# Entry
Amino acid sequence: MKIIGIGKNYVSDLSEMPKGKVIPLIFTKPDSSLLENNADLELPAFSDDVWYEVELAFRIGKTCKNATLEDALLFVDAIALANDLTAKDVLKQSREPNKGPWALAKGFDGATPISKFLPISDFSDVKNINFSMTVNGIETQKGNSSLMITTLAELIVYVSNVMTLNPGDILLSGTPALGADKVNSGDEMLGYLEGEKMFHTKVK
# Structure
């Protein structure tokens, strides 16, 4: 199973939507980064600057290769809410010449807290899904899938034309344009999908 993410995929208002073709910024995360069942998060010792990014997560239900816009959504069977944690200090180093890969900044153990999955049939329109996150009781991020620059269908088409998507693979669809911030020891992060609490992560 693989986790595929997309960077910088949200605008804060539809008026900010870019014109013309956009090439999505794709990265992968190992399945060992998953943090399930509301387990506590232990911050990695190698970073002093881990940030949270709440995201919609879509699960592939059947083998997908060379999808089209017309059939792309047929390969998705469930939706969850995830937190794409990033070690910003490590990421900054990896962007400099001759430094390490993004995988170190986004792939550490526990870097992807994730909720249970809900059947996609529970959602009437994947282009209109509300989600949010609170940290210590304060709402920090709020988004709607209508603000995605690369839609879910476009993401599936783009990725499946490069690599086969297998049942159980997870697509992280990007975080809202505003609100991502640093994670601190003692924080409690709660994620909500259409108003329903989906995950609760305590930070050690």
